[in-house]
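Could someone model NAP with this protein?
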Amino acid sequence: MDIGFIGLGAMGRPMAANLVRAGHTVRVWNRSPGPAEALAEIGATPVREAADAFAGDAVITMLADDAALRAVVLGGRLLEGAPPGLVHVSMSTISVALARELTEAHRARGVAYVAAPVFGRPDMAAAARLNIVVAGDGAAIDRVQPVLDALGQKTWRFGEEPYRANVAKLAGNFMLVAAIEAMAEAAAMGERNAVSAASLLELLTTAVFTAPVYQSYGAAIAARRYEPAGFKLALGLKDVRLALAAADAGGAPMPVASLVHDNLLEAVARGDGERDLAALGDVALRRAGLDGAR
Ligand code: NAP
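Reply:
Sure, complex below.
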């Protein structure tokens, strides 16, 4: 297929590379030019304007947040120039409100809009092992299914209304930060009672909480290893904000999300925004008087 790819950050770079390797024609655009030039070495075609990527059979956006998607797609008036039949696969983690707004904007211009946020860090993206939550018009999803298959291990369909995929993604990321907070508080309690965080988290993530999320973040918390950032803490804060906004709009209290939101703010205020999300664990550890990150 002829695919445009917009947003070549930690996630977008390996995803675009996998599309090239799967035999698709891939035009790539990024705000800063370096990542697009690097992908040219494996056969992608860098384009100068985002509008040149917003063309072909499908275009994927994998931008940081609402502001980035707004600036590039709406600010850049990309919908106005979209060719007939193009499917926009929107894979960033964005707000439910923006997902609804984009759905309407695409409908008004006759462009198919599919929401497809993902679970999995950059290493999973590189291995084409993402779990992709997808929602939108069924026929449009069918058309881009080969693209999704080249990016992930499984596509989870959440119906015809795109925003529902974003709701599911935000719920998952809320549970992720809650898990990190829980492990960090347990580790702090252990350390203050002569049980090392490493042995405690190894036990708990092997015997009881065996999900990959617990194991990978548990190991990072125990080692207080927050660099390089696979998933930036600032993006985790963004996701909790979005979950709280959806909770507010839907009338569902999320007291744990409110607490973790403040802890993430504290981490950002201390300069940890560009570190890995695992650095959230340092908030609980520091409060227990334990040393800073290694
Ligand atoms: P990232 O490494 O920070 O990359 C962000 C991308 O957005 C870059 O291409 C950046 O361009 C671009 N961007 C930011 N602001 C922009 C603006 N105003 N205008 C144009 N482009 C802009 O983020 P990432 O980790 O790849 O994450 C991308 C999305 O996937 C996010 O929504 C994130 O929440 C979600 N996600 C991430 C993970 C993960 O583990 N990393 C997992 C699942 C989902 P520049 O290169 O020019 O800065």
